[in-house]
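User: For my dataset I need records formatted as: sequence, then structure tokens, nothing else. Please produce one.
Assistant:
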Amino acid sequence: MTEPLDVRLVEAATSSDGPVGVAAVLRDTWEAARARAGRRLEAGGDGVEVARLYCAAADDLLTTLWRVTTETLYPAHNPTAAERLSLIAVGGYGRGVLAPYSDLDLLFLRPWKSSPRTEQVIEFMLHVLWDLGLKVGQSARSLDECLALARTDMTIRTALLEARYLAGDAALAEEFEQKFRALVEKADPRAFIAAKLEERDVRHQKTGAVRYRVEPNVKDGKGGLRDLNTLFWIARSLAPESPLGARVLDDLLTARERRTFEEAFDFLWRTRAHLHRVAGRAEEKLTFDLQPEVARRMGWHGRGDEPAVERFMRRYFLVARDVGALTRAMSAKLEARHQKRTMSLSRLIPGRRRKLGVEGFIEDAGRLSVTGAEVFAQAPEKLLYLFRVADQHDLDLHPDAFSAVTRSLSLVTPSLRRDPEATRAFLDILAQGQRPYRVLTLMNETGLLGRFLPEWGRIVGQTQFNMYHAYTVDEHTLQAIGIINDIWRGKLKGDHPTATEIVHRIDDFEALMLAMLLHDVGKGGDRGQLEDGAIAARRACDRLGLDPRRTEFVVWLVLNHLALSDHAQKRDVSDPATVRAFADLVGDPERLRTLLVLTVADIRAVGPGVWNGWKGQLIRDLYQRTEAVFRGEAVTRAEPLADYPELVAEALEKGASAQALTTTDPETASAVTRVAVAARDRPGLFVDLARALAEAGADVVGARVATAADGMALDVFELQDGAGAPYGQAEPRRLTRLIASLEAAASGKGCAANLPRPAPNPRRAAFDVRPTVIIDLDQTPGAAVVEVSGADRPGLLAALARTLADHRLSIRSAHIAGFGERAVDSFYVTDAKGRTPKPGKSLDALRRDLEVVLDRQAEPGPRQSAPVRASVRDVSDLGLGRRVIPVSRPPEAR
């Protein structure tokens, strides 16, 4: 029969094994208790319930360890005053909730300076906990030290606000609690509140200032658990005698807001607990490789064409939005209660109120407020007026106005959506506003934007499970609108000189802004992003009262908003056929100008580092050449080698040459190393160059390949290393070796051996990217355009080039682009006689072979779930342009 736990602990504690032996005895009960909490989680237990079970397991562990340490190893049956000691949980652990791999925050409290016994007790306990593999945040302080630090250090005061007695001298713990509570009650709460709000802002900047990033930090990100904890801390500081500050929360939040608070708290705790268990560590960032499994464990299922992971992440972002609204309301109410006037000069005047020209609207201490919710009940159109006035006077919303809007959303009826005054106010905000991003974001946060514009409502919080888009669909769109406004105001002239110049020549700026707002509302639709988007845009424009001509223009922009980037990035802009095809599609200069500004904003708003000078130059080149067509000028083939005359001259002398220069784009934090290679063209040249790049570990993020009429080839590559930094920046010798290797490869002297299979990238391995091969025989005279799309990986370009060479095809030009986990490469190819390949069995075989190359992905790692289909419900979602670029295949292959 197994001996009782205490007996085994005493034997282990008194043996020569010491802490290691005690840890071995405790391990089974500790892991069993954690396993019970885990089973409850898997059975669908509430997040807070499970967090308390993990906390209870830690409590049992620590009280048992305390008992054996203080009663068996270092007993003090009649302790002196100096030997008194209490064990207190602080921080999140003190609040009574723990995630599976959370730290244990402990305070060893003594009456005054340390004694030999207290040091022995603390040292032994910590060694046992470390042997168990636990992370412990510990401090050993006297009562007076705790109080002194709490007066000046707000971080320590925060941790002590949640102090909870675990074991030891109960009277000492009670004395500390009473004195600490008195200290907090006497302190001016404004300093603590200001410190917590500043701490929150700093934390948001570190984890990403935008709430809707598609890989959110569940604990520290904007809209995460720490934001709710901040409200707890502030409430507790105002009412230290109230459990978890409940009295203050009930006072500051409405009953509905309190329910929202509790539901958000529970959802985020469930998410965090599953995230820890899936990762097997204290992982707080919900990364792509972890999202599908967390979604599965939380019980989400796919619906129609929307996978489970996207439905789960949409719910996550709606919760994050609710957390933001709660934080905003409570923080503002606290500011008003304690007269914290730091945001603007007007708030330095307590109680300042003034009318703003609309009945029922007032400025209250620097914020726009309303005299009561009845303002909207009497005139629902004032829901829209409110935000127009906020923009006109550059005012934030008072929390009372914010709450009044959310409580009045039922007033948004079909008749209000068609009301001319309401729609005029909305369009004024969108196209005439000073700060449309800020004001539309406020409308989105209250829920009004999605209620007034139902087409918008369906994309609120919508995510796309791919590595290309950094934000939810609605946040991406709002940022794009803000970028257009910045371009209009000249704030981005250095980054986008062409767009800044032409935006003021656009005849219908309102149509541009409305098209930008609606450009992605078709995402997730059954017919595909572009077609569904155009249908939704037409419906919205008709309801908003636009005349038919303007409606057609907005619909055209939505339907073709990918056309400029498609042609620029995946077609040869030096080819007259490309320019003429694009000009035929666009039709007139007004559409061209509008499409350019929309495209710049759309790409730049995808995420940090997506826009770069490489893309900008391609788009400007196509714009300028198309504009020349509309002026009646002849379209001639651009000379691809003109940008590198010295390099070409050197190559003519010695047969091959290479040079590199690092280019950093001023508008992004990212940079690339651009390497140009000039050489006499020959069969297999591009293959050899691509293999040399792959062997050197260079990630090709962009490339342009062209061959001049005199047989000179120019290959330009934009390169990064595995960490996303400019290739060779950290190790210049790697770049030197790469250039030497490229020169050798260009001369035919150095061809790499078969490349080793790369180690899987966990984030990329999470995606199942469908391979696509399109062969277009009609796009340009004298060549076929082979467009391939599939999962990006090291060495992919080399493998694709090798396949084309094996089919005896010469690459006339190549256009390489990446969209997160997906590579999209286009090759202009000719047969062995320099002509367009003929349709038939050879091209069918080529298509099959390319698909095999694209489908050759590394297996998922040991802790990864099976890959999930990346969210590209129609290839146009990532700019593959099937709608706008004609595709020809032989009849038997269709």
